[in-house]
Amino acid sequence: MDETAEVICEKQGQAGVITLNRPRALNALTLTMVREMHQALDAWAADPQVTRVIVQGAGEKAFCAGGDIRRLTDLLQAGERDEALAFWREEYQLNILIKRFPKPYISLIDGIVMGGGVGVSLHGSHRVAGERYLFAMPEVGIGFFPDVGATYALPRLPGQMGMYLALTGERVRRADAVMLGLATHSVDSGAIAALRKALIAGEPVDEALAKASTDPGAAPLSAERAIIDSCFSAESVAAVLQRLDEAASKGSEFAAKTAAGMRTKSPTSMCIAFEQVRRGASLDFEEAMRTEFRVVSRIGDGKDFFEGVRAVLIDKDNQPRWDPASLDAVKREIIDHHFANLGPHELETA
Question: Are 245 and 259 in contact (CB under 8 A)?
C-alpha cells in the first residue's frame, strides 16, 4: 500500500476500503482519484470476496471538500476546456456507478462533505454521519451550480428543503442531515473506528450500523420547515426572495438572514440551480447526470465561475462582482441554453 497515494483502494477482510488521501487539501478529488475509484469499484462489484465497500477520508477535518475547483478554472481560462470536461465527465460517470453499485456502499463521514464529496457518498446505500459532519452544496456562491447528482437528489428531499439548499448553499450539520435523509445513520466520532472494524470483519451491515447508531438530537431546520416550504415553492428565484422578504417583515429572523445570504450569490447560478431542482424531480439518475454535464459544458462560457473562484478561493476578498449583477438582468435564453442537448458530446452513461 502506497501511503503517499491520492487515494488508497484495498481489500480488508470482507470489505473494499477506499481512503481519500489528500488531507492537506481536505481530500479534494482529482481525476486520478476518480479513475482509481472507478477501477476499484468495477473490480469489487464482481469479486465475491468483497461483500461491502467502505469509503472514508484521511485526517480529521474532511471526508471530501469537493473537486479541485481552482485547477478546473485554471484549465478553462487556459483554453484547456477538453481537459476540464474530462474530469467532470469521469466524475459524473463515477457518481452513476456508485448509484448503481450492487453491494452495500458505506461512507464514513466525520468532517466536511461538500461538492464532489457529496457525489462519492450521497448516492451510496449508507451514509454515516459523525459528530464533525458538515454538508454543503455551496456552488451558487462561486458562480457554479450544485452538480454531482444534486439535480436528482435535492428535489427528493422533504418538502422544499432541496430548493432551499440549492439556492442558499447553507451548511447542514448531523441532526439536520439525518432528518433530511442526507445521512442514514448517526454515529459518535469515537465509535467510528469500531464500526469500521466490524464492517471489515463481515458483520451484517445493517446490524453493525444499528448497533453503533446514536440519537443525533433535535434538527434545527425542522423549526423553519413551514417558512422554507412556503417561500421556496415560489415560481422563480425572484419570487422566492419576495416571499422571504414578506416573512422577514412579519418577524422571521431566519427569512431575513436567508434572503440576505441569497443576495450575495451569483444571480445566474441561482437561476440555473432553480431550474435544476424543478427539472430534476421528474428525471431518473442517468438523465439528471446528463443534464448536469450539459450545464457544466457551458459554465465556462460566462464570467461568474471565474469571478467566484477569484473572490472566494484566490484573492479571498469575498466581494464577487457578478455579471449580470441582478436577477432581473438574467436572460431566460441564457439559462435555457445551459440545459440544451449537446448532440455528439452528451455524457455517456451506459
Answer: yes
Decide: residue 211, CB within 10 A, 0-12 exposed, 13-18 middle, 19+ buried.
middle
In this structure, the answer to whether residues 172 and 319 fall within a common structural domain is no
d(CA 131, CA 109): 9
Question: Which residues are tagged catalytic?
Answer: 67, 116, 139, 147
pLDDT tens profile 167-182: 999 999 999 999 999 9
CA distances, 223 to each of 176, 219, 220, 229, 254 (Å): 11, 8, 6, 12, 10
Is 149 contained in some domain? no
Question: How many domains is the chain built from?
Answer: 2
Asked if 25 contacts 68 with a C-beta cutoff of 8 angstroms, the reply is: yes
Three-state secondary structure call for residue 253: helix
Query: For the whole model, what pTM was predicted?
Result: 0.97
For residue range 139-158, what is the model confidence (pLDDT) as tens digits? Answer: 999 999 999 999 999 999 99
Do the domain assignments include residue 160? Answer: no
CA distances to 27, 140, 197, 208 from 200, in Å: 22, 38, 5, 10
Q: Where are the beta strands (DSSP E) in the chain?
A: 7-12, 15-20, 52-57, 62-64, 105-109, 112-114, 126-129, 134-136, 172-173, 185-186
Which are the contacts of 193, defined by CB distance < 8 A and separation ≥ 6? Answer: none
Residue 332 lies in a domain: yes
Residues 93, 172 within the same domain: yes
Which positions ≥6 away from 196 have C-beta within 8 Å?
54, 56, 108
Grid cell locating 273: 440551480
Amino acid at 185: H
The answer to whether position 350 is within a domain reads no
Grid cell locating 284: 431518473
End of a domain among 212, 242, 269?
212
Say if residue 191 is in the same domain as residue 251: no
Domain residues for the domain of 261 are 221-345
